Amino acid sequence: MELPSRPYVVQVCRLSDVKRQDVLIKAYLASGIEEDLVIVGDGPKREATEALIRELGVGDRVHLIGSRLNPYPWMKHARLFVLSSRSEAFGIVLVESMCCGTPCVAPDVPGGIRNVLIHDQARLISEDSIEALAAKIREGLANPPALDSDPELTERFRDTRIMQEFLSLPTDAVTSDSR
């Protein structure tokens, strides 16, 4: 599948229980938005996700396109990135999306989401429910955060900055036990 000609929102992740594509699709439908939904990824929940799309009769709007070697064009051209995980250790996919210039919506679940989505972007963190995620999808499209006006959102994750911070740690912070 090529990039859609219609505006869309996107999710890029493994199709699995923890990523909750069922919650994503239900929140997308509850949002009432006109944009399509593109899901980039593959995994053990692919058949169940395809069955849900068929059951709900939304195959013309919800596109399950499988894995892509380079998902960044899908992120860059999306109007919004939507995460629906039950937990997210760090949320590197959120950083990647913001680096592509695409704002993110995510539920407030255990993990690092609040460490990644800061400043104005943090207002698109929803309570962990389908209805709340749907509301943040609508808000993110109606009033997206201006990522280009807040360079700290992505700058703090640049590899050179992380390496500089690592190298500035006191030498006693690295012990023989941690090597």
Distance between the termini: 46 Å
Beta-strand content bin: 5-15%
* DSSP helix fraction: 25-40%
> Which structural category do the helix and sheet elements fall into?
alpha/beta
Sheet with most strands: strand arrangement: 3-2-1-4-5-6
* Outline type: globular
User: Largest sheet, if any?
Assistant: 6 strands, parallel
The beta-strand count equals 6
Calculate Rg over CA atoms: 17 Å
Q: What pattern of helices and strands is seen along the backbone?
A: EHEHEHEHEHEHHH
What's the assembly state of these chains?
single chain
Helical segment count:
8
The parts where pLDDT drops under 50 for at least 5 residues are none
- Integer average pLDDT: 87
What features would you describe in this structure?
The protein is α/β, with parallel strands linked by helices and 179 residues long. Helix content is 37%, strand content 13%. The protein is built from 8 helices and 6 strands. It has helices at 21-31, 46-56, 72-77, 92-99, 113-116, 130-142, 152-155, 159-167, and strands at 8-12, 36-40, 62-66, 80-82, 104-107, 125-126. It has a 6-stranded parallel beta sheet with strand order 3-2-1-4-5-6, with helices on both faces. Helix 4 (92-99) links the parallel strand 4 and strand 5. Helix 1 (21-31) crosses helix 6. The longest helix has 13 residues, at 130-142. The radius of gyration is 17 Å and the shape is globular. The protein starts with 7 loop residues before the first strand and ends in a 12-residue tail after the last helix. The model has no long low-confidence stretch (mean pLDDT 87).
